[in-house]
Write a structure and sequence with these properties.
- The radius of gyration is 22 Å and the shape is elongated.
- A hairpin with a 4-residue loop joins strand 13 and strand 14.
- It is about 25% helix and about 35% strand.
- Strands 3-2-4-1-5-6-7-8 form an eight-stranded mixed sheet, sandwiched between helices.
- It is built from eight helices and 15 strands.
- The chain folds into two domains: about 180 residues, P-loop containing nucleotide triphosphate hydrolases (Rossmann fold); about 120 residues, Nucleic acid-binding proteins (OB fold (Dihydrolipoamide Acetyltransferase, E2P)).
């Protein structure tokens, strides 16, 4: 039987426990449910017994990462027989390996990540790879303890959405106000009203982030873009990826980023060729996207000069 799991991760004192307590007190969330909270670390905020009782929730603690394994987790489920799980995951444990350790019948409905914005730069300086791994898996990242006019949302968007274009972002300020998304902070360096929309080499990174995170505003539009031909095992015949190499978090983490191009002439071009593609953006379900994503249906492909820099940037 499938068991819905809501995961909440973040470093110590990032607000995970408070969020879980607020959530289980929401009658829409807890109505008719038996919730098992699995907490993988203990912070200053405690799980009050009266709140747990009213919400029909129980808590189990896992302190050692080696105890986060299918056998032990199944024992906890058998003991409490929950209808849903809230998992307070230790922020020092990588989300990339988490799914391998969870029971097969656990279905992760949403993965929330909480980040204390006042400490964000310290985290990036000292734990960049761990933070980047977690950004790449999370569905929603909440930056809390934000100071007004001291949050560079554009910079955060570029760096985080380069790792995970589909992630949603929220900002919680010290005065209690909350902002969702970017609310007008998404001006692009190219003309979105042009036909076709012209993407020069230097703008590839920003375009990639924007089309993957907000594909609807490109659907049905004509685009001209330049990049390298790339094919992977999950790219079907008749397609290739118009791509660039990107340094997503550090010099040791160079990845290929790009979107699928659909063309009956794709076989004329080999991996590594630099091409200029003009076509129309459509949406298709593809294994490369693990669902639906933007595809450039090409009506013209021709060779072009390589970019001056091999790497693409997101600023």
């Amino acid at each position: 039987m499938e068991l819905p799991v809501y995961m909440i991760t973040g470093f110590l004192e990032s607000g995970k426990t408070s969020f879980i307590l607020d959530t289980i007190q929401d009658k829409q969330f807890s109505k008719g449910q038996r919730t098992l909270i699995i907490a993988c670390e203990e912070g200053e905020v405690e799980y009050a017994p009266d709140i747990l009782k009213a919400a029909k929730a129980e808590v189990e603690f896992i302190e050692d990462e080696e105890d986060f394994n299918p056998d032990h987790l199944n024992e906890l489920v058998k003991k409490h027989r929950p209808t849903q799980i809230m998992l307070e995951y230790n922020g020092m444990w990588s989300l990339r390996t988490m799914a391998e350790k969870a029971p097969k019948d656990w279905i992760f409905y949403q993965i929330f990540m909480f980040v204390d914005h006042s400490k964000y730069q310290v985290y990036m300086n000292n734990m960049r790879q761990l933070l980047s791994d977690n950004f790449s898996v999370a569905d929603i990242v909440v930056f809390n303890r934000c100071e007004k006019d001291k949050v560079d949302k554009k910079s955060l968007r570029r760096s985080i959405k380069a790792l995970n274009p589909k992630i949603d972002m929220m900002f919680e300020y010290n005065d209690g106000t909350i902002e969702q998304g970017f609310q007008g902070d998404d001006e692009m360096p190219y003309d979105l009203n042009a036909d076709p929309i012209e993407i020069v080499h230097d703008d590839f990174g920003l375009w990639y982030v924007d089309i993957m995170s907000t594909p609807d505003r490109y659907l049905g539009r004509n685009v001209r873009v330049r990049g390298m031909v790339f094919r992977a095992s999950n790219v079907p015949k008749g397609y290739f990826v118009i791509s660039r190499r990107a340094m997503t978090c550090c010099a040791d983490d160079i990845q290929v980023v790009g979107i699928l191009v659909k063309s009956p002439e794709e076989s004329k071009f080999k991996n590594g060729d630099w091409v200029e593609v003009t076509g129309r953006i459509i949406a298709e379900k593809q294994a490369a996207y693990k669902g639906e994503g933007p595809v450039l249906a090409a009506h013209e492909i021709k060779a072009t000069e390589p970019a001056a820099s091999e790497l693409v940037y997101f600023s």
